[in-house]
Amino acid sequence: MSIEFDRKIHRTLEDANLQLAVYTATGRLKDGRTEIVSPAELPDYQELRTEAHALKKHVMENLDHYLEEFERNVEAHGGHVVYAKDATEVTDFVVGLAKERGARLIVKAKSMTSEELDLNERLEHHGLEAVETDLGEFIVQLAHERPFHIVGPSLHKTRYDVAELFTKNLGVAREEVPEKQTAIARRVLRQKFLAADMGISGANMLVADSGAVVLVENEGNIRLTTSAPKIHIAIAGIEKMIPRAQDLATFLKLLARSGTGQRLSVYTSILSGPRREGEIDGPEEFYVVLLDNGRTRLLADRAKRQSLYCLRCGACLNACPVYRKIGGHSFPWVYSGPIGAIITPQFLGIGHEPALPFASSLCGACAEVCPVKIEIPELLLSLRGEVRKAEARERKNLLEKLAFRLFAWIMTHPRLYEMAGRAAAATAPSETGGWIRSAPALMNIGPLRAWLSQRDLPPAPPKSFRELWRRR
Amino acid sequence: MVDQLMPQVGMAMVEVLERLGYRVDFPERQTCCGQPAFNSGYRAEARTVARHFLDTLEASEAIVIPSGSCASMVKNHYPSLFEKEPATLARAESVAARVWEFSEFLTRVAGVEDVGARFEDVVTYHDGCHSLREMGIREGPRRLLAHVRGLDLREMQPAEECCGFGGTFSVKFAELSGAMARTRIEAILRTGARTVVSADPSCLMQIQGVLSRAGAPVRTLHLAEVLASR
After folding, report:
1. Which chain B residue is nearest to residue A401, measuring alpha carbons?
2. CB spacing of A461 vs B5 below 8 angstroms
3. What digits encode the pLDDT tens for the residues B179-208?
4. Is the pLDDT score of A269 beyond 70?
5. pTM greater than 0.90 (yes/no)
6. Contact A454, B210 (CB under 8 A)
């Protein structure tokens, strides 16, 4: 494990306020989801999941076809499709267009894809001002942090933190009431919307048969971002594709329910192309940037391709007992929680944080709530295997490898196993009257030390089961 | 784990099975299912141990395991482990079809819910995650407990959360694992139960370890131990 990963986990666990904030917020989202996908509320929930999984599988297997269909339909509506390999290509496109049109101020809708690209920093580097307009994103942008949670970027921030950030950055009087804080943000952002030259959004879904970009939200800021400025650019991973408009019936039923426990988000926008003649609003120019950034590599891996089915609803984060303890910022990349644990190694390489796939008790709560049935625990197991293969190639972690070789050897030699068991029982630390609290200094190393750092150890019984069995 | 650390669990399971009229055998060459290696990413080592499991137990008519996690390893993960070895895969599938987690064997094979047990205590039941989510075992253990005379079963809120054990996770991410377990015991203590029952020895070891460290007057017992008492 990298020292950084270890330290971040430790710090988060030590922070009692943060623990409470994360546990409470994720608990609320988790319970909201449970209720709204219950059989009484949504009788065909399991069928919808199966269908969503099948649709995503079909799209991934025929992505070339759907990308072309999508492109044709966007162009037919007067929009433009741009293919981008990586963050540099996205930045070049946006900066190039901004220069051509003389744009300087960009308003942004919440987008994990944009976070993945560090787009704001890149744009600022080129002298453009990019302002996040989702309240949570606005807060983390002021704090110079990345989102803590896929759906709730600032769920780790208390209203006092927000009061602090607003006074410091916006030059307003200290305000601790959330509703009033929202009003401040609204006032600031409204000016930005009116002055913005360009709006950048992500996409929850891309609909191939209609060339449409679908965006869900609760605040209305996405509507403004995508319609007030003259130019709208939607940046979306190629995996966001769905075949037909009618498939929205499946995905929209699952998305908000899984993410925020709502039947539908407050706003669902289906955008296809720029403003047409006779329309009273909408941008003059409409671009969809289709982003690869490693996705085609995942697509090529038949076994792990399902990682691309993700809708970014965040349900797995809320269900995950690990995420609920270590929070989003302990994770090595912008994508946190169970989905982050499976896609980070695939996007950034297995060596980026080799311990990440191991940071799970494999409890399976994530797979249980995933609306598209991604088999997250299986993928973690598969990634663990890949980490070991890489270690073997690089001749790393040899001691642990040796320990498991020894384990396999002992477990396939029953007499040796029994002798080892007796020896361990004879030398194990013991304590009168029950469970073992500590071990002598010389023995207090490795896994035993790690175990005892948190909890007591059962004493070795006088006889093993097989000994009792023989004496029956 | 039962053999070396919780022999009383094995004895209790034997007692319940014999009470129901089953002839119990313990092929003595058996050791482990290989899950520790598998979950740690050491697939070759896991395969070696899994082959030994098949060698020692494939002659049995039914294989009853006092751990949902071990049972799930054989039932759900052996197939992927041997996907490239057709001959072993066929053996693994044949064995997997005869593997039962203890409560599952009682409710689905023996078809009993009342094993004639008496246990006077306030009890809460902890679902092992692999029993619950990989094996789909939820109601069975609760129905078995509901028929135990004198037993007052109370559900935890939330009911189905991980205890944080996770095999080598418990020592690789010790502080995190401990934090998860402490959250779990808060839910246990809120029920007012004096005994935590589970069908997974590893969960019991984790939960008892943290209860013991906290000095909480709550004990842990395996489902078999409760069902064996009269």
Report:
1. B42
2. yes
3. 999 999 999 999 999 999 999 999 999 999
4. yes
5. yes
6. yes
Q: Which of A366, A404, A470 to mutate to test the interface with B (most CBs of B within 10 A)?
A: A404
* pLDDT of A243 higher than 90: yes
% pLDDT > 70, chain A? 100
Judged by a CB distance cut-off of 8 A, whether residue A32 touches chain B is: no
Contact call for residues B184 and B209 (beta carbons, < 8 A): no
CA distance A250 to A3: 43
Phi/psi at B75 (nearest 5 deg)? -70, -45
Residue A43: φ, ψ to 5°: -60, -30
User: Of B133, B115, B9, nearest to B65 (Cα)?
Assistant: B9
Average pLDDT over residues A212-222: 98
pLDDT of residue A428: 83
Inter-chain CB pairs, A–B, below 8 Å: 197
Mean of pLDDT over chain A: 96
Instruction: Report the residue from B133, B169, B209 with minimal CB separation from A435.
Output: B209
User: Among A363, A398, A431, which would you mutate to test the B interface (most chain B Cβ atoms within 10 Å of its Cβ)?
Assistant: A363
Residue A178 near chain B (CB below 8 Å): no
Judged by CB atoms closer than 8 Å, whether chains meet at A465 and B37 is answered as no
CA distance readout (Å), A53 to A46, A307, B50, B124, B148? 11, 11, 32, 36, 42
DSSP per residue over B217-228, as a string? S-EEEEHHHHHH
End-to-end CA distance of chain B: 25
The count of other CB atoms within 10 Å of the CB of residue A263 is 11
> Rounded mean pLDDT of A327-339?
98
pLDDT at A264 over 80: yes
Say yes or no: A35 contacts chain B, CB-CB below 8 A: no
Distance from CA of B125 to the nearest CA of A (A): 17
Continuous segment of H or E residues that includes residue A373: none
Q: Is A362 on the interface with B (CB under 8 A)?
A: yes
